[in-house]
Amino acid sequence: MRIPKTAFVFLFLHIFFLNFTFAQKLSEVDKIVAKYPKSFNTTEKLAQKIEKDFNSDHDRARAIYTWIALNIKYDYNAFLNPPKVRGFSYSSEAEKQRKIKQLNDDLIQKAFNSKKAVCEGFTALYQYLAESVGLKCEIIRGDSKTSLRDIGRKTTFSNHAWNMVLIDKKWRLVDVTWGQGYYDSSKGRMVNDFAPIYFDTDPDYFFAKHFPDSGSYLGTRLSKDDFLNGPLIYNKTIEKDYKIKSPESGILEVRNGEKLTFEIKNVSKSNQVFYLNKKNQPVKVQNAKEKRGGLEFQILYDNNVGEYITIFIDTNSIVSYKLVQKERI
């Protein structure tokens, strides 16, 4: 999980505007799992409880996601100070595989017993529990897009991991690490905030924020340029299905006095739309027009606009862009 050690204050303002309650975010499966004990004696007992309480593959996969997200916390200290990689020797392929399995089992049990993990522990535990209830599950490693500085990066990195789980003959995307909460840069710590949106996430949203090391998803090549140069979207964007129609690029070349045009689907004039200037002051959008099931509006680029611009809807950050001044001719 890639979490920036420093960041611009306005990127994280959405943290303070989470205006929905925990109960409102819970599905019926979540409500049942929320009443589970925070600790089980063994992973097998947790898997048995989930198998007993839920009949469908979907509900079991969701129950595992919810229990982990509610009870395993992101170990930010381990992220900052990762343990040394444990090496081992082996004399045969069978011995090698046994030792790899033992390391993986140790990782799973450490996450389960300590209630702390980084993304490797989250994904390994999710896969183990999913397979324990009869589900096919894989771990995918790749890049993650979490901060303004990720817009327009030159290359991808292998810095995160997530899962795919097979439900009703369809592979579903799951990021239980992000489901458990977020990093609050103003407090310098992780904040527990259950996010259902990273279970069975729409691939279009998922791959705006994730890029697998393989560069492909179910055999289809993904665009690395779209990932690196696309805008940064936020949790509320996914939750509310706010589709960012334009600009499609996250890097906008601008001149002073130029108007930037934005179009966002599934939002209307009843919503409050604003952005923050470079002094972190809110500026309300006044010229929004309803268009094709969304809003189209313009923002004047001048000296009051900073290097990045983040659009907010009803006090929730939705999308950010990087602004690059055009060279004068």
UniProtKB/TrEMBL annotation:
Membrane-spanning parts: none
Domain of life the protein comes from: Bacteria
What InterPro entries does UniProt report for this protein, alphabetically? CAP/Cytokinesis_protein (IPR052557), Papain-like_cys_pep_sf (IPR038765), Transglutaminase-like (IPR002931)
Q: Which residues form the Transglutaminase-like domain?
A: 111-178
GO cellular component annotations of the record:
cytoplasm
Checking Pfam families in the record gives: Transglut_core
Per its record, how is this protein called by name? Transglutaminase
Q: What is the lineage of its organism?
A: Bacteria, Pseudomonadati, Bacteroidota, Flavobacteriia, Flavobacteriales
